């Protein structure tokens, strides 16, 4: 999450003619920035390595980083890690994409049709503020322990932030822009396509990022409750069988995946909302 | 010569929601415009000046076809205005540029709606970008432009699809004084180049006298046309400072005389409204009738 704001600074427009000069400045800037954003993480990892070795914490419960990484490597070589990761990603990406496919069109429709939004908003707020995990038992009861309930819970967790952000994106389009477009005689359909849609993209993306984060969050918890595969299951299982380094390896995998997903979403967001960027010289 | 735009006995009233509570909204009709009659000639620069809240912007919305009058009609080339159309272009005070489009793409927007082909569109847009003096800035996004430049883009956008009439709603009110003066003389230059009919709304008397061939003075709410004053200057774009011309000063004073009671009344109305809004908040039933 921390890099979501700083990546904005990276986007530097190349103007013709100044290319070489800009590139040099850009790489210097990158180097400096790379140091600034990684120093805290390096410190943290160093502390993780040192604390168990110096006897500050119990090595059994918090093995040094290098041991965890070795365990991670073993898991990778055995293919277990890949299996679990694929299982998890299929579920979370599946639920996430499903939520995008369903929520955004519905959100656009609801937002566009103002009275509907007024009536539905309280209900949607209620759903959104019901923690997805709280109703996980309901999903398991209704859909069983298989993949369907996992994907459904991810879908549920993703759908509401997406829906609400899409609705508010559409509803909060600057009325002046609508007026201006209408004064040029745009039909409702092209008004929607050419004005409402692009104007609400930034807000919709806030929802997409929230959904992306919660897709992983919810899934891992769901996998801990009832699953025979997946990274959440791996963490739970290794804890029960006291394979502590493996457990940490699972945790690290999850945070890295979370970071990568967030980074990718930020990247897409920057692409689509380049016009919103403010310059940082 | 027949009128390009003819506003005939136009009336417009609003129903104002007095309470923002959900069920107890009291709808009150408020007369915004009353009995407006005004003819604007082909190629004329007509300025409408009036105190704030007198319904100037309502009149502009009617001209744009965004709303319909309660009675009376507005004719463009003898035909009643039924809705928004590309035969009229509007420039708003707050620019209303699409922030996700570059300056050039913004100017192309109306042409796109008109169905002009991609290549031709680009070429026309570039022409108008040049006309408003923004060559070199066509690929900037609105947030990368200053207020004055944004307004230039907005003017270019409205001119690009070649409307019959250009409607301007206090276009320079949000700009600083120097930028405003520059844009005023630029606008006169553009007007002389394009020979468009312009209806320009403002609350600035000086601006009105400087720009308008005729100035229509409006009353406070309900808005009516109090008087239409001729501003008989030739060659406005000449180098001499028109603003210190004794004739200019005289006309400015004349308009000020016409306006000052209206401004005073408008301010009283505003105070009244604020008081009522406050009392309405504390006492839902006690909504007094207006005026």
Keyword list:
heterodimer; A: 281 residues; mainly alpha; MetI-like fold; disordered N terminus; B: 291 residues; alpha/beta; 7 helices; 10 strands; 38% helix; disordered C terminus; P-loop_NTPase (chain B); nucleotide-binding (chain B); ATP-binding (chain B); transport (chain B)
Report what the structure shows.
The complex is a heterodimer of chains A (281) and B (291). Chain A is built from eleven helices and no strands. With 281 residues, chain A is mainly α. In chain B, helix 6 (205-211) packs across helix 7 (246-282). Chain B has one domain (5-87, 163-290): P-loop containing nucleotide triphosphate hydrolases (Rossmann fold), CATH 3.40.50.300. Chain B is built from seven helices and ten strands. In chain B, strands 6-7-8-3-9-10 form a six-stranded mixed β-sheet, sandwiched between helices. Chain B has a four-stranded antiparallel β-sheet with strand order 2-1-4-5, covered by helices on one side. Chain B has helices at residues 56-64, 103-114, 118-131, 147-160, 177-194, 205-211, 246-282; strands at residues 3-17, 27-41, 45-49, 71-76, 79-80, 88-91, 165-169, 197-202, 214-218, 225-230. At the A-B interface, helix 8 and helix 9 of A face strand 6 and helix 2 of B.
- What overall form of chain A do the CA principal axes indicate? flat
How much is the average pLDDT of chain A? 85
User: How many domains would you count in the coordinates of chain A?
Assistant: 2
Mean pLDDT score of chain B: 82
CATH architecture of chain B: 3-Layer(aba) Sandwich
Please specify the SSE layout and strand pairing:
The complex is a heterodimer of chains A (281) and B (291).
Chain A: H1 3-10, H2 19-53, H3 65-78, H4 80-112, H5 114-128, H6 136-143, H7 147-171, H8 175-183, H9 188-225, H10 231-240, H11 244-272
Chain B: E1 3-17, E2 27-41, E3 45-49, H1 56-64, E4 71-76, E5 79-80, E6 88-91, H2 103-114, H3 118-131, H4 147-160, E7 165-169, H5 177-194, E8 197-202, H6 205-211, E9 214-218, E10 225-230, H7 246-282
Parallel strand pairs in B: 3-8, 3-9, 6-7, 7-8
Antiparallel strand pairs in B: 1-2, 1-4, 4-5, 9-10
Helix pairs in contact in B: 2-3, 2-4, 3-4, 6-7
InterPro entries (chain A): MetI-like (IPR000515), MetI-like_sf (IPR035906)
Membrane topology (chain A): Multi-pass membrane protein
Family (chain A): Belongs to the binding-protein-dependent transport system permease family.
């Amino acid at each position: 999450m921390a890099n979501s704001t700083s990546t904005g600074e990276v986007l530097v427009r190349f103007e013709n003619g100044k290319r070489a000069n800009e590139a040099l400045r850009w790489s210097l800037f990158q180097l400096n920035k790379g140091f600034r954003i990684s120093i805290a993480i390096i410190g943290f990892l160093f502390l993780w390595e040192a604390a168990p070795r110096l006897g500050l914490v119990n090595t059994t419960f918090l093995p040094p980083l290098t041991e965890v990484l070795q365990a991670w490597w073993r898991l990778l070589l055995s293919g277990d890690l890949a299996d679990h990761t694929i299982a998890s990603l299929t579920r979370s990406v599946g639920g996430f994409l499903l939520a995008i496919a369903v929520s955004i069109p519905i959100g656009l429709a609801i937002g566009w049709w103002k009275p509907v939004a007024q009536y539905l908003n309280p209900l949607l707020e209620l759903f959104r503020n019901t923690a997805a995990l709280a109703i996980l038992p309901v999903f398991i009861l209704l859909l069983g322990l298989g993949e369907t309930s996992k994907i459904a819970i991810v879908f549920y967790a993703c759908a509401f932030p997406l829906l609400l952000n899409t609705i508010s994106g559409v509803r909060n389009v600057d009325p002046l822009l609508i007026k201006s477009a209408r004064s040029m005689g745009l039909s409702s359909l092209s008004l929607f396509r050419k004005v409402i849609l692009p104007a609400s993209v930034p807000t919709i993306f806030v929802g997409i990022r929230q959904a992306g984060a919660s897709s992983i969050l919810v899934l891992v918890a769901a996998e801990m409750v009832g699953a025979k595969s997946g990274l959440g299951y791996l963490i739970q299982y290794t804890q029960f069988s006291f394979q502590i380094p493996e457990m940490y390896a699972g945790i690290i995998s999850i945070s890295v995946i979370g970071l990568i997903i967030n980074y990718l979403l930020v990247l897409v967001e920057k692409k689509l909302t380049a016009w919103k960027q403010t310059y940082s010289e | 010569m027949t009128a390009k735009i003819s506003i005939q006995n136009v009336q417009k009233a609003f129903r104002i929601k007095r309470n923002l509570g959900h069920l107890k909204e009291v709808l009150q009709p408020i007369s915004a415009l009353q009995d407006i009659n005004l003819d604007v000639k082909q190629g004329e620069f007509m300025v409408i000046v009036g105190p704030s809240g007198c319904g100037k912007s309502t009149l502009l919305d009617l001209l744009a076809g965004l709303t319909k009058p309660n009675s009376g009609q507005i004719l463009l080339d003898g035909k009643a205005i039924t809705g928004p159309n590309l035969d009229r272009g509007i420039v708003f005070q707050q620019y209303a540029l699409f922030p996700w489009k570059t300056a050039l793409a913004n100017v192309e927007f109306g042409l796109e709606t008109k169905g002009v082909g991609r290549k031709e569109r680009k070429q026309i847009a570039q022409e108008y970008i040049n006309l408003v003096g923004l060559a070199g800035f066509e690929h900037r996004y609105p947030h990368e432009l200053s207020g004055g430049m944004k307004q230039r883009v907005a003017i270019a956008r409205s001119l690009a699809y070649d409307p019959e009439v250009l409607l301007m709603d206090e276009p320079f009110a949000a700009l600083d004084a120097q930028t405003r003066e520059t844009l005023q003389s630029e606008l006169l230059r553009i007007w002389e180049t394009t020979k468009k009919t312009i209806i320009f709304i403002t609350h600035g008397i000086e601006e009105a006298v400087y720009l308008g061939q005729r100035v229509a003075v409006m009353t406070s709410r309900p808005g009516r046309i109090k008087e239409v004053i001729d501003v008989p200057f030739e060659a406005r774009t000449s180098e001499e400072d028109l603003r210190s011309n004794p004739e200019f000063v005289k006309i400015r004073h004349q308009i000020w005389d016409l306006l000052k009671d209206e401004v005073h009344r408008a301010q009283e109305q505003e105070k009244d409204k604020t008081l009522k809004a406050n009392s309405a908040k504390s006492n839902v039933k006690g909504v007094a009738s207006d005026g």
